[in-house]
Amino acid sequence: MDRGGTSSTETWDSLFSEFYLRAYASDERDAGAGEQALAAARLSGCPPDGELLDVPCGFGRHSIPLAAAGYRVVGADRSQALLDEAQRRGGDGVRFVHADYRELPFADASFDAALNLYTSIGFLGDEEDTRALAEIGRVLRPGARLVIEAMHRDRLMTLSSDRHWELLGEGRLLVAQSTFDHASGVAQTTQTLIDAGNRRESRTWSIRVYTATELIAMLDRAGFAEAKCYGDLHGGPLGSETRLVIVARTADA
Prior knowledge:
There is one protein chain. The chain is 27% helix and 31% strand. It is of the alpha/beta class. A hairpin with a 5-residue loop joins strand 8 and strand 9 (200-208).
């Protein structure tokens, strides 16, 4: 199968592991994750006590605040390490399920809405990402919505640096180096964690960065009836300096 230059499943399993938790589990950006999750849920039109799928859910940065707000949340993720961390964080109100989003273990029409946040598409290449979108659509009820929030190619092209670093606390440093292939639309990133003792651990991966047009076409192939684009989770306009938010609706019964 042609993955279009994206990384293998083994590479993603290696990234979404204890390494990912060390890099992101204490990230200050999580302070706003609850607000983002609630905004996404409102944009999805999910009823206040509706059945909501967070996929992939990672370590629960969105699932947990959604459950606290009263939604009946199922969080699905391929990484058992991230699911274990989600449960440790207090995800008792969430049903966490170990699953690849290309093969979800749920019946057709199980959910009132689904969320795919924090650039959680692009891992698999065009064909398999479309398959994942179709699988999410399968488990949504007629007329239900999927909200996607992601980096997009136009935004990526405005970024001024392909190298950056972040202090993570406890003397730890995260250094990232990225390149982007304009022809394939694939970005390659190497992240290196450096601890207080100067010990280093790195992961390298390649991800497909789609344009809004490409993702809308994929959603159409995946069977969604309609898709609208925004620049944020509050319905603001899409631009080259905003993130990409797509609200895709399944066909009515």
